[in-house]
Design goal:
- The strands form two sheets. Strands 1-2-3-5-4 form a five-stranded mixed beta barrel. Strands 6-7-8 form a three-stranded antiparallel sheet, with no helix packed on it.
- It is α+β, with helices and mostly antiparallel strands.
- Helix content is about 35%, strand content about 15%.
- The protein contains seven helices and eight strands; from the N terminus they run βββαβαββαββαααα.
- The protein has two domains: about 5-100; about 105-255, no CATH class.
- It has helices spanning about 45-60, 85-90, 115-130, 190-200, 205-210, 220-235, 240-255; strands at about 5-15, 25, 30-35, 65-70, 95-100, 105, 140-145, 150.
């Protein structure tokens, strides 16, 4: 398993609806990508979460745009008139992360658009597993493209790694924020999808996906950090899966 690596050749436009000012850029493969800057917001940890959660979702059979590593040269800042964006580019020189741009896609509308119960259940299960706090009615982080649902923006997942404590100490937290998930009301098959999804995430797969994270994003002890992420994810899958129990409980509360 490997991620493609491209080089950003042209800054096209910022996506100002994102708090960290992601941008559409063109790369040396002539592709267009949504670039996530390492110099923005939560820095490398947001990119780590985007990469790990995104590739875990793909391994679960969920639709995620291709994720690539993207090299950013500070020279791109010269053509940008906005001082804030200039500084963001300069602060993000080097290796960043990007997702394939889906031209013409529209934001999923939970009122107008529908998702079948099985897919909704898989997405809720997965988001509870990776502690993704950012799939709410206000910000669904899902797109419709060619009549297919796509999951985007996993930078807020794995939020335990922002704390000062050991990841292992938080691995068994149930994830109470699942109550705010936009798809929870229709996720009626959480118990049915559990075994199949959990079986996909073997220890070998977890190690393989975490190994995709560039060492330069992991600080002074990259192998220790990789082991911490792998251990955290493996512990969350242990039975009883508290995140699943919490999701089922939260859904039941919606119908009381």
């Amino acid at each position: 398993m490997a991620l493609r690596k491209v080089v950003a050749t042209r800054y096209v436009t910022p996506l100002r609806e994102g708090g960290s000012l992601p941008a559409i850029v063109e790369a040396d493969d002539d592709g267009m990508y949504v670039l996530k800057f390492r110099g923005a917001g939560q820095g490398e940890k947001a990119l780590i979460a985007e990469l790990i959660a995104g590739e875990l979702a793909r391994a679960a059979g969920l639709p995620v745009p291709e994720i690539v590593l993207i090299e950013l040269d500070v020279e791109l800042a010269r053509a940008e008139p906005d001082p804030e964006i200039q500084e963001l580019i300069k602060a993000s020189a080097g290796l960043n992360l990007a997702l394939d741009y889906l031209p013409g896609s529209v934001t999923f509308d939970p009122v107008a658009d529908s998702v079948d119960a099985t897919l909704a259940s898989k997405i809720v299960w997965f988001d509870a597993f990776v502690t993704n706090i950012d799939r709410s009615p206000r910000n669904t982080n899902m797109l419709l493209w060619h009549r297919k649902l796509w999951l985007i923006d996993h930078g807020a997942a794995l939020y335990a790694h922002h704390g000062s404590g050991d990841l292992a100490g938080r691995a068994r937290e149930p994830f109470a924020r699942v109550k705010d998930h936009v798809l929870l009301p229709i996720a009626s098959e959480l118990g049915e999808v559990d075994a199949g999804l959990a079986a996909r995430f073997t220890p070998a797969l977890l190690r393989e996906i975490v190994a995709l994270v560039p060492a330069e994003w992991l600080g002074d002890a990259p192998e220790a950090r990789r082991a911490a992420y792998t251990g955290y994810l493996a512990a969350r899958l242990e039975r009883p899966r508290l995140f699943l129990e919490e999701a089922i409980r939260a859904r039941s509360a919606l119908h009381v």
